[in-house]
Write a structure and sequence with these properties.
This protein is α+β, with helices and mostly antiparallel strands and 72 residues long. It is built from 3 helices and 3 strands, in the order αβββαα. It has helices spanning 9-17, 46-49, 53-63; strands at 21-24, 30-33, 40-43. The longest helix has 11 residues, at 53-63. It starts with 8 loop residues before the first helix and ends in a 9-residue tail after the last helix.
């Protein structure tokens, strides 16, 4: 079972609906692969990255093609 931080759960749901795969490395980091299989992002836990973790992760995912609209 993959442990996805609470801040990323909505993004993970959107990504899997769009054909992305998310796996967990032995270190616990998440690896996000877009449907083309060409790009992989490793995201770190929010505690290790400090402020801006969510915004930076979303920016990187969008750059690789993830479509996500934040709910308000």
């Amino acid at each position: 079972m993959i442990r996805i931080p609470r801040d990323l759960r909505d993004y993970a749901r959107a990504a899997t609906r769009q054909g992305w795969t998310i796996t967990q490395a032995g270190s616990g980091h998440l690896k996000w692969k877009n449907p083309q299989g060409l790009n992989v992002i490793t995201s770190f836990s929010p505690r290790s990255c400090g402020h801006g973790f969510k915004a930076e992760t979303l920016r990187r995912l969008r750059k690789l093609g993830l479509v996500y609209e934040e709910r308000r």
